[in-house]
Amino acid sequence: MEERKACALLKARFEAAGFHIAENVMFAEDHIRFEIDGYDAGARVGYEYITEEAGDSWDVDDDVQHELAERRAKGDLFVLVVKETEAADAAAIGQRADAFLAQLAKKPAAAKKPAAAAKKPPPTPKKPAAKKAAKK
Hints:
By secondary structure, this protein is of the alpha+beta class. The chain contains three helices and four strands. Helix 1 runs parallel beside helix 3 (90-106). Strands 1-2-3-4 form a four-stranded mixed β-sheet, sandwiched between helices. Strand 2 (32-40) and strand 3 (45-50) form a beta hairpin.
């Protein structure tokens, strides 16, 4: 499947699950550096569809994929990596995305979309103290 179409499908699935996906983001942490196809930095969740068309195999090689898997196991970072050779059509990509997102839904809060901070109501202004009548 063409990378552009596969990424559009993945983005739709991730956004339907509540993530805010930015496309083609430079991801650089520790010794991992590559342009990730889709990423929600706040939730630390994203996806990478590896194709020869895009030349992904040189920057998302086996070492990077292994590191991403380790960080996922630690609960630090959640990136779905799909190789075109393992999921070459829309149905297979959708199944991989759905399975990944279902696993995320079962993870602790770190893997879920952070809840918006509860807004505190504005402070109530104090009423001015009543003036005492002056003695004459």
